[in-house]
Amino acid sequence: MDQNNFLRARRQFLQTSGMGLGVSALGSLLPQNALAHNDGAPAAKHVIFLFMAGAPSQVDLFDYKPGLDKQLKKPLPESISQGQRVTAMTRGKEQLVVPSMFKFNQAGKSGLWMSELLPHLSEHADRLCILKSLNTNAINHDPAKTFVCTGSELPGKASMGAWLSYGLGSMNKDLPDFIVLTSAFWTGGTRNVQGLYSRLWGSGFLPSKHQGVAFQTNGDPVLFLSNPKGVDSEVRRRMLDAAGALNRKHLGEIGDTEIETTIAQQEMAFRMQASVPELTDLSKESKEVLESYGPEVHKNGSFARNCLQARRMVERGVRFIQLFHRGWDHHSILPKQLRGQAYDIDQPCAALIEDLKQRGLLDDTLIVFAGEFGRTVYGQGKISRDDYGRDHHPRCFSGWLCGGGIKGGISYGKTDDFSYNVAEDPVAVRDLHATLLHQLGIDYQKLNFPFQGLDQKLTGVEEARVIREILS
């Protein structure tokens, strides 16, 4: 069979296979709103996910354990460790307890306990819901990060933002549904900084138009955004029209939906040449707003600047914004490194909350702050009252939520006296995903995509639950 006959035969097959590939291709283009929506209006329209890559120490930031002061350098009781899995860095070594060297204070009318390292965020305690019983199965960084971002420890699945783009569609035709910002981290001695991979914001098996668009910290915010010398917008428009005509002809011949994605993304790229420069231009922000985010806001790629960019993206209808802040893997000299990391994120997080609130956007925007797992109560490296490190710990860790229909001024879940095991109200990562989807009006059980013989879901095949106790 020659090439032309092959293409005609394939097109005919796609058009006439009522229960075959034609239906599958069509299904990949249809919005899932009718099938996946909950009853009633969604509580939120946007998500800003603040991902602390490397895993912040809950013992030193949110999970106050004053009883540990008497346990310095004492072995972790077997009744607590229970023979649980540990990393290769801990295996065979004595597990000596190290209490946090940092003071904790009760913040706001709610009296939430928060570390002295977070003075600005503490001012918003009455707007925060601190989750103290998060837990995961992954004990190493890459699978743990992949799990939080995609719902699976194995690479290749669709990311959170891709699922939302697929399920809810676009709110702004001139900007992507899903934007990723990676932040430069504190440079005063940070160690063990793992890389970030595009699959963390990829579309997996979903059509590629739903993948996240990563903005760059230097040069054009998006690669190849600017026209090369000698090419203006009119010339670019003619080039795009010609390429689009060829692509539509090819689409009609073979019916590959990715060609349609290519056409749509090329048109989006053209519109972004106007929308992105305006989005990233902070010159019209007031002096007061800039100062509220702290001095680092003037540095390209800083967490502070990215938080301000995230607010501007919400204003312009971007559905899902994910900020990655690295440098939280503190196996040694944790007190020094944690101070630097907290400096990076404390004031910008507080400013983001207040900025959204002042503009009437906080109720529509769900802010999520979390890492991939927690840190152990026992120490690593040099161990003293004011110098220690902590290993990976998946059995419990802390994060917080704000806005988007979440109750403020509450702490949900409890850990044991050593912040080692969940004692009450466990929250699995899939529960966090289910709650996130629910707040945007999606039934997590119904949002799915057929792939490799399984109706794939962000929450996976295990039972998940919406954490209704924290919903306002």
Q: Any descriptors?
A:
17 strands; 34% helix; 472 residues; nine-stranded mixed β-sheet; two-stranded antiparallel sheet
Description:
This protein is an alpha/beta fold and 472 residues long. The protein has one domain (47-317, 330-470). Helices cover 34% and strands 18% of the residues. It has 14 helices and 17 strands. It has helices at residues 3-16, 21-29, 33-36, 58-61, 78-81, 119-122, 141-150, 160-168, 233-254, 257-280, 287-292, 303-315, 334-358, 429-439, and strands spanning 46-52, 104-107, 112-115, 128-135, 178-183, 213-215, 320-325, 365-370, 374-384, 387-393, 397-402, 410-412, 414-415, 422-424, 427-428, 449-451, 454-456. The strands form 5 sheets. Strands 1, 4, 5, 6, 7, 8, 11, 12 and 15 form a 9-stranded mixed sheet that branches. Helix 9 packs antiparallel against helix 10 and helix 12 runs parallel beside helix 13. The longest helix is centred in the C-terminal third of the chain and has 25 residues, at 334-358. The termini are far apart.
Give me the secondary-structure category. alpha/beta
Number of helices: 14
Report, as a whole number of angstroms, the end-to-end distance: 63 Å
What is the overall silhouette?
Answer: globular
Work out the radius of gyration: 24 Å
Percent helix among the residues? 25-40%
Mind describing the biggest β-sheet? 9 strands, mixed
What's the total number of strands? 17
How many structural domains?
1
Q: Low-confidence runs (pLDDT<50, min 5 residues)?
A: 10-34
How confident overall, as mean pLDDT? 88
Instruction: Provide the β-strand percentage band.
Output: 15-25%
